[in-house]
Amino acid sequence: MAAASLVWVVAKASPAWRRVAAPFMAAVAALLVVTVWGDVRTALSWTPQALVDDRLWVLDAAMLTLAGAGLLYERVHARQVRVSLAHLAVDLARRGPDTGLVPTLARVVGDPTLTVLYPLEDQTLVDAVGNPAELPPDLAPTVLSRAGKPIAYLLHRPGALDDEVAMAEIGTVATMSVDHERHQALSHAHVAALRASRARIVAARDAERRRLERDLHDGAQQRLVTLALLLRLAQTTSPAGSADTALLERCTAEVTAALDELRGLAHGIYPAALADEGIEAALQVLAETAPLTLDTGPIADRRYPEPVESTAYFTIAQLVRHCVHDQGWLSATQTDTTLRFELDIDGDAPTQETVGPLEDRVGALDGHLTLARRAGRLATLVLELPCE
After folding, report:
1. Is the CB of residue 92 less than 8 Å from the CB of residue 99?
2. Mean pLDDT per 10-residue section of the chain, whose length is 388 residues
3. CATH code of the domain made up of 278-388
4. The pTM is what?
């Protein structure tokens, strides 16, 4: 019964308590085992009682020695913790805050799972790179506070920081040095929120483009088509060579021209090929009206997320419109995570007024638009967009 109680107490104890009490518990357990075994041997007349008593005295001395060694180990361990924290504080003061607070704390505490989360103003939590996070149910949180306000949460194994003295020292050092990593995490979170906001603006703009294109196609364009048909019908019933026939022919030509312009306008707002068939088909249509040679075989018949396709198309279309006067060459490649376009132009190099707004749109998707000038009027524009 005593042994079972001992096992239950050890199982329920925290790591810090087990570390302190382990030598005593081991001594008590061994003493119980030897005492019971000695009583059994005496009862069965295997060993004289005097010899059993002598052995118990020796065992008692050994257990006391073990307990003393346990106390010494705990003091040595506490000293090691203080020395490690002192080294951390010195490193932070000498080399700045980029010395790896979390790995050092994990090593000091002896918990490789230790990590840190940071609260935003609305008390939502983010990790060190600004990604949203939640308190995991299998880890225990220790709050680091300043002026009564939480500034960080240390997440660790339950009981890993039950040692109050070590926790006080760890909390002091961590609170002093956590500010840099906290500010970095908050900055990453704000940048991610800004990027998400810009991506929503791009998506809303593209949605409005598609709506306008549909309205033009289903509204004004259909009306002009109907009007052109009525005019042609009137031509067939008008006497040949009459003034009315000539007027009808002129009206038909004007309506047809207006219809072509409207179709071109709708295509510029949001190409039907882009929505229906994807970026490669839309670029093929663009090349029909511009001095542009395409090498887009690697992305033929592939579809990408809608914001990626629309951003790629409108960026390239703007560059072609403003920069390609004589000839342009466009190639497309794809890696596992990136869609890459290279536009070689023989013409005027793009100005900041042209490239600036495009960089903003590309950056909203965490992409890159770079310009490499070459000899003469040659230049290369590289567009990279994530396509995961």
Report:
1. yes
2. 49 49 57 55 50 54 59 59 60 52 73 84 82 84 81 80 63 67 79 74 69 67 76 76 74 76 64 84 87 87 88 88 79 90 79 78 87 72 87
3. 3.30.565.10
4. 0.51
